[in-house]
Amino acid sequence: MSNLMLPEVRTNPPPSRRTNPVPTTVLLARRLAQNPERVFDAWLDPVKINKWIVAASPADTVTRIAVEPQVGGTFSFVVVRDGREVEHLGGYVELYRPRRLAFTWGVVTDRDLSGVRPAMSGAGPSGTLVTLDFAPAGAGTELRLTHEGVPEDQALRTEEGWSKIIQALANSIGH
Prior knowledge:
By secondary structure, the protein is α+β, with helices and mostly antiparallel strands. It is built from three helices and seven strands. α2 crosses α3.
């Protein structure tokens, strides 16, 4: 028997390390009992954001929220998850109260508490794009969320995350 070694065949880069997975769009529509103004405002008020942003992940703790609610303004909130900081950040692209809110969305992960900050995940340097459309629906609101540029392998997790966030938002702002 020969000791012939066959070359290892690999996907280059391996699927888990690809930096440019195929982007897709996540779409959600939910009916909320609150009026469009109340739902819209809950996305821009740091006190309200703090009540719902990690409600779906009770082990997470919000350590910082900064919001500049104007076109060209930015937002950032930092949570501690499993002993590590995770920063969610972006910039406001559209604000048409109470009809539409659009912002870039990115997540800085694997940042240890020493402050070392790696590159942001998401499509491109500014992240992905989230658009929220608020339409009156009786006394409540129909909220349509469109999240563009989501890596295909993260689409299901992204949809589940937004679903939990929207439910937590609805619960936190009451009827």
